Amino acid sequence: MQSLSLFPLGSVLFPGGRMPLRIFEQRYLDLVRQCLKQDEDFGMVWITSGSEISQPEGMAPELAAVGTTARIVDWDALPNGLLGVTVEGGERFRLRASQPRADKLVIGEVELLPAPIAQPLPDSADSLLEVLVNLEHHPHVQRLGITTDHANAWEVCWTLAQLLPVEEDIKYRILACPTLEDTIELLDAALNELGGD
């Protein structure tokens, strides 16, 4: 069990995935400054109910049970005066408890989940890799600089889930899924839904 500063968000971050963020709240500006200075990770947790923006006392958002550690890999001052950062997902964790500090930054007690053993995609899931390879040629994906081991089915699934335009609750179910077989099944269903099958 360890303590981790949390960044609750309406989006799901996967291990190896990258996501641009615009930072404007003081608690998160301070968090970014600390993480850059100390070379620390923080935790990204999907908000299941509520708002990303700071709310009055007693209106804290509800957080998902599984999140991902995040590391800042790029940052820049945006023209609108906000701070732009790009984060990369690290390890999955289970959120056991959370508590806001006086400055409203949420601190979580987390248990890191063991990384799944790398294994190849089964032949029946080759279509997932084909979709990912097509997406990797998109300029937006290339700008993010995501690198994926195509020989590791978990990385293929997680990167694909990060990039697909599907609902965040589906992405969360994929993130929290404990088995590769079920992860592939969820991704297949998401792709079929996108394709209108």
What is the share of helical residues?
25-40%
What separation lies between the terminal Cα atoms? 43 Å
What is the domain total for the residues? 2
Oligomer: single chain
The Rg value, from CA coordinates, equals: 17 Å
What is the element string, with H for helices and E for strands? EEHEEEEEHHHHH
CATH architecture verdict of the largest domain: Roll
The count of DSSP E runs of length 2 or more, i.e. the number of strands, is 7
The geometry reads as globular
The CATH class label of the largest domain is Mainly Beta
CATH fold type of the largest domain: Archaeosine Trna-guanine Transglycosylase, Chain: A, domain 4
CATH superfamily descriptor of the largest domain: LON domain-like
Q: How would you describe this structure to a colleague?
A:
GO terms for molecular function: peptidase activity. This is ATP-dependent protease. It holds the Pfam family LON_substr_bdg. This protein has 197 residues and is of the alpha+beta class. The chain has two domains: 2-112, LON domain-like (Archaeosine Trna-guanine Transglycosylase, Chain: A, domain 4, Roll), CATH 2.30.130.40; 123-195. It is 34% helix and 31% strand. The chain contains six helices and seven strands; from the N terminus they run ββαβββββααααα. It has helices at 26-38, 126-136, 139-144, 153-163, 168-176, 180-195, and strands at 2-9, 18-23, 42-49, 62-63, 66-77, 83-100, 106-112. Strands 1-3-5-6-7 form a five-stranded mixed beta barrel. A hairpin with a 5-residue loop joins β6 and β7. α2 (126-136) packs across α4, α4 (153-163) packs parallel to α6 (180-195) and α5 (168-176) packs antiparallel against α6. The relative contact order is 0.19. The mean pLDDT is 91.
